[in-house]
Amino acid sequence: MFKKLHILFLLLILTIITPAFAGIFGYKKGDDRSVWDILTREERFTNLVSQIEQNELTDYFKHTKAQTVFAPVNEAFDKEDSSVFKRKYSKEQILYHLVGVSAKSDELWDGRLLDTFAYMDKMQQRLKVSKSTTEIAVGTGSDQAQAKVIDQNIEASNGVIHAVDKVLSLPLYLDETLRMNKDSQDFYDKAKKADITNELRQAHGYTVFVTKGDIFGDELSSVEKSYLLDHPEGRKDLSRLLKHAISPDMYSSDKFAEGKSAIDTLEGSEKLEIFTKVRKILGNQFKVNDIDVEKSDILAANGVIHILERPLMPKDKGFIEPATRKTLLGMNKTQIVKLFDENGLGSYLDEDQVDKTTIIAPPNDAFEGEDEDSLTGKRLKSWLQYHIVHGRYEPSDLKDGQLLETESHDNLGQKEYQRLNVRITDNPSLGKDTILFGKSAVVGDPIPVKDNQIIYSVAQPLELPRDPLAQLPVNLDLSTFVASIYASGSDEIIRKSHGITLFAPTNNAFNRLGLLAKHLLQPESQEKLAKVATYHAGRGVYYQDAVSEGEYRIVTLSSNAEITLNKTKDGFFVRGHGAADGDDREVIGKVDKTDILTSNGVIHTIDRVQIPSSVKITNYDLLTAEGTASLLNLLQHADLKEEILKGLDPNEPYTILAPSNRAFGKINLEDLLENRDKLIKVARLHILPVSMPRLNTDEILQTNPSVNEKSPKDVPYIGVDIPTLSDGRYVVIRRGISGGYDVAVKGTLQDRANIVNIGRSSASGGVLVIDNVLLPKEEFYRHSMPWWAILLIVLGVLVGLAILAGAAYSGWRWYKSRREGNIHLGEEN
């Protein structure tokens, strides 16, 4: 009984003294004092209480049934404001320290989000807990300093107090939060360029997904980034890309349900796929479009920010619609874009361009110093169109010497398109071929735009092909043709014609004309020369690769006379008037160099001059062009019919063997002129009533042959017999073993005459200039010794040589005997 009373007495004493000691040493669980009671009684919270009372917030702290207060100590306020007159904090900032649930330290797990009593723009503000093994802090989760808990779990009847070392600042708006945090700085910078920062400030609950560092990473090329960031035209697409990473609703990590879900974006064309793994203690873990969230819940006043591990890009590769315009801007080719727009060519750069094209893009600095007038002088629109190639050409599609069809008509006429020459050279230092369009080298790799366009960057602008009369003199081997154009007054018609092909004879080609070239270049032959010059200008543009094999009759500028173009497996051939047949290479021209581009067509060089049928050339014309006045005089005295010198009938051709004046100097011309019969015989011996024999002009004139083949109908080495007007007399023309040709009267031993020049007439005949006068057989022998006289002279020479040889031998024998000491003394008696 005594023991029971003793135990009851001890329990009574403990019941009385426990509250007293609790008042001395601290508060215990179940303390009936409220949060407000504790705050007002604790000296270290006087500044907080003062701010609560100034803002008339006492009822929040007195009557909230379950609350957590993160209470800044007095020193925290002193750090914020060291002035004598303490500033008044806003109502919402003070309420930002008050949470509507009671949460002790063991309930404050890392990443927990707590709803406070603070509101900004009618949006409830939240706190984020950051917890490590050594400390607990609360704040917005941003780079701004957090408030550290320095005394935790101060329990009250209606909640719990955690003393903190810093006055909590209200969250910043989204734009400011992005700017103030290093992980989101790049997003802010790009949002500022896209002009959406004001929208972010005025948002009402946005969620922003941000990549640390460059938000585009390697997902976009440097060209795409340049377009988006460096050019005003890219702002709209930049805004769309950024808004793809923004949801118009506020999703903190604790708002996502377990598993997969999808949320809308501000851009609207694609939803973001969310996969969430709910964790009660450590906070939810989630992915966005299969990208891990590296840091979640950076709180802003009007939204929340999540930091992703890598860039969040649209799944649709065509999200930013590829276009040539955008690519050119990204390549910093702004000047050519501007010029395209100003000259009505903008459609080639936009999304609705469906034709396959290749764009050649020069750099901006290539236009420096170019004023509007100088560009206009270059036929600006046509020049710009020259940078647009029909067809999409990858580097593997290009070949050396290829001609690409451009959009430019230039001076070709509306039916023809100007061509662009391609040159490809090996460049071992780069490990790849160097590509040149015209004279402009390609810089870097081409950039494809969808499947229908590709852009090549070049070091300098393309140059339109030059005027033909400016292009021709560049090739020094065409100087005679250039001179003939100007001398004949044909320059303007060639320059002003649209869409022509010039078959330009080389200097060697003019040399092959021999006497005819001399005749055409005489002042009195200007009209003929004009016809010849314009005969080489055909209407229509015939590029070598664009012409199929076969024959083409081409109308020329020479009074619409036609010339034949023939493409075979052996090459390009041009045939005018006067060819003996289809393989007469002495007349038919072969194209040496092809596809020299001009502003109004193309130039091909040829190795033979073509003569139109309208140009009439007589033997008389040829003889007057050369130093053959003696022969002309002889023929005029011979009273031969006029057709021999001035005939034009191809059915009655005459070929004249014309000794030069020097050749006539070797004979007694006066004696010949005084003896009419002899004169007629000599004259008729030099006239061949046949067409010009098939001779190789290169052999006669010693010009460089353009081809290696020999005509199968050429005069052979054994020679051919050709009749003359002298009854029954023939001359023999043969090919020399060492080159060239010679001619002699058949059946005589007189010296052969070398053929030194040639000229063809319109009647299929012509003139062969020779270096000796040919004499009839009887005249040759009359003016020479008889055969027996020649024989006696030869025998006399031989006998004389024999005597000299015998005397020399005797002298040698005598000399040898003396040296050996053998002296003849005579016979002994």
TrEMBL record:
Alphabetical list of Pfam families matching this protein: Fasciclin
SUPFAM superfamilies: FAS1 domain
Signal peptide positions on this chain: 1-22
Residue intervals of the FAS1 domain: 32-168, 171-312, 320-462, 465-610, 615-774
Alphabetical keyword list: Membrane, Signal, Transmembrane, Transmembrane helix
A single GO BP: cell adhesion
Domain of life the protein comes from: Eukaryota
PROSITE patterns membership: FAS1
Keyword Membrane tagged: yes
SMART domains: FAS1
A GO cellular-component term linked to this record: extracellular matrix
MF annotations from Gene Ontology: cell adhesion molecule binding
Transmembrane segments: 787-809
Protein name (Swiss-Prot/TrEMBL): FAS1 domain-containing protein
